[in-house]
Amino acid sequence: MAQHSVSTPVINRAPGSLAFSLVIAAMVACGLYAAFIAVPAMRAAAQQQLVQALTDENRSFCEKFGMRLGSSEFVACSEGLAIVRQKQADRDSAAANGF
């Protein structure tokens, strides 16, 4: 009987091997990229979107009642909306904490 052996390429994945070290280095590089570049950029973009959404809501709400952008009435309306939003955030936080 003839024996056939098939040679398959095997990557040594044991700790201390070059392939293992390269995989770990790539994972660390991706983690550092995410921690220092991607996540802060996403947070800044989300914050900017929130500011824009609040500005749009203020403008549409206040202008609905005849307070034009730039007028003192509009400023008072926007400040009033900010107070209402803060009070609602406080209530939501208290409810989440069980109070």
Number of strands: 0
Q: SSE order in H/E notation?
A: HH
Strand percentage: under 5%
As a percent range, the share of helical residues equals: over 70%
With helices defined by DSSP (H or I, 4 residues minimum), what is the helix count?
Answer: 2
Write down the overall geometry.
elongated
Class from secondary-structure proportions = mainly alpha
Average pLDDT, all residues: 87
Largest sheet: none
Nearest-angstrom radius of gyration?
29 Å
Write up what this structure looks like.
The chain is mainly α and 99 residues long. It has a domain at 44-99. The chain contains two helices and no strands. The model has no long low-confidence stretch (mean pLDDT 87).
Outline the fold blueprint.
Blueprint: H1 18-64, H2 72-96
Helix pairs in contact: 1-2
Features:
99 residues; mainly alpha; 0% strand; elongated
Task: Write a short abstract of this structure.
The protein has 99 residues and is an all-alpha fold. 73% of the residues lie in helices and 0% in strands.
